[in-house]
Design goal:
- Helix 1 runs antiparallel to helix 2 and helix 3 packs antiparallel against helix 4.
- The radius of gyration is 16 Å and the shape is elongated.
- The termini are far apart.
- It has one domain.
- The longest helix has 25 residues.
- It is built from 4 helices and no strands.
- It is an all-alpha fold.
- It binds protoporphyrin IX containing FE.
- Keywords: Membrane, Transmembrane, Transmembrane helix.
Length: about 130
């Protein structure tokens, strides 16, 4: 198996792991919340899972990019921007700060999920802009 394929498999597995982590962690904003803070149960495991998945996606994404000699389609840039939106909205949703209201956290989660669905749609459809 060539390196490019191995990296792609790890990248796609990390993406699946990220989807699982985001969905599991989302439940902490709906079940067992403590005031404006998410449910603390399983927090460490969920944070670790999410960080591992996102770090692996970024690392394997950059390696894949180098292996492809940066020869990408225009939709790839949309994907990277959506990935940044995903990370920042998740950071907003789970910020360890009582001042962030639950409704704001859920709005952050909503944006994160829309970004994630859009990324998946982009990699499936591979739209041809222009
Ligand atoms: C949640 C975020 C992401 C998801 C779900 C995702 C998913 C995928 C999938 C399914 C593929 C395979 C597409 C195909 O060939 O049919 C792919 C390829 C690729 N991704 Fe991502 N990706 C994500 C984030 C990123 C990021 C942040 C980068 C760059 C830093 C990146 C760089 C790449 C590259 C360069 C390829 C092409 C690999 C190749 O053709 O050998 N991805 N991605």
């Amino acid at each position: 198996m060539d390196t490019q394929l191995i990296i792609k498999i790890i990248h796609m597995s990390a993406a699946s792991l990220a989807i699982i982590a985001v969905v599991l962690r989302a439940t902490t904003l709906f079940v067992g919340t403590q005031g404006n803070l998410p449910n603390p149960k399983g927090r460490v495991v969920l944070v670790a899972l999410q960080h591992l998945a996102m770090a692996l996606i970024a690392l394997t994404g950059v390696i894949a990019l180098v292996l492809k000699d940066f020869d990408v389609q225009p939709w790839f840039y949309a994907k990277v921007i959506l990935f940044l939106v995903l990370i920042s909205s998740l950071a907003k949703a789970y910020k360890k700060d009582e001042a962030v209201l639950m409704v704001q956290r859920r709005a952050g989660l909503f944006i994160a999920i829309v970004s994630l669905i859009s990324i998946v749609a982009l990699v499936i459809i591979k739209p041809n802009f222009g």
